[in-house]
Automatic annotation (TrEMBL):
Entry annotated with the keyword Transmembrane: yes
Name of the protein in question: Uncharacterized protein
Protein species of origin: Euzebyella saccharophila
Keywords of this entry: Membrane, Transmembrane, Transmembrane helix
Top-level taxon of the source organism: Bacteria
Transmembrane segments: 21-46, 66-92
Length: 110
């Protein structure tokens, strides 16, 4: 019986080696940009509401705002970016990870 072959990507045979690294790297870059926006928004929110945190003083509020921004960035990166990039890398590393026709069609387009 003839074995089914997976069709090559529409972008050419060289694309298969590049996409294993490109998609996770692009995802990591995009999420870092978004998480930086989230963390800077937390910092701006805390510094603009200085009157509500008057018991800490101006220096304490700035420290809290910076710490809150850094914590927001770290939590988002650890809980969202790194596992998703790892999954994306393994998805494109193995030939047919889920053994479905949808995956073959998706990889053909990507």
């Amino acid at each position: 019986m003839e074995e089914k072959r997976t069709p090559p990507s529409i972008w050419g045979p060289w694309w298969a080696t590049i996409r294993k690294w490109l998609y996770p790297a692009w995802l990591l870059y995009e999420t870092f940009i978004r998480f930086y926006g989230y963390s800077s928004a937390v910092q701006i929110y805390l510094t603009t509401h200085l009157e509500r945190l008057a018991f800490m003083g101006q220096r304490g509020t700035q420290v809290l705002a910076t710490f809150g921004g850094v914590i927001t960035f770290v939590v988002c990166t650890i809980s969202l970016s790194l596992p998703l990039c790892f999954i994306c890398y393994h998805f494109f590393l193995q030939n047919n990870l889920t053994h479905t026709l949808f995956e073959k069609k998706l990889k053909f387009l990507l």
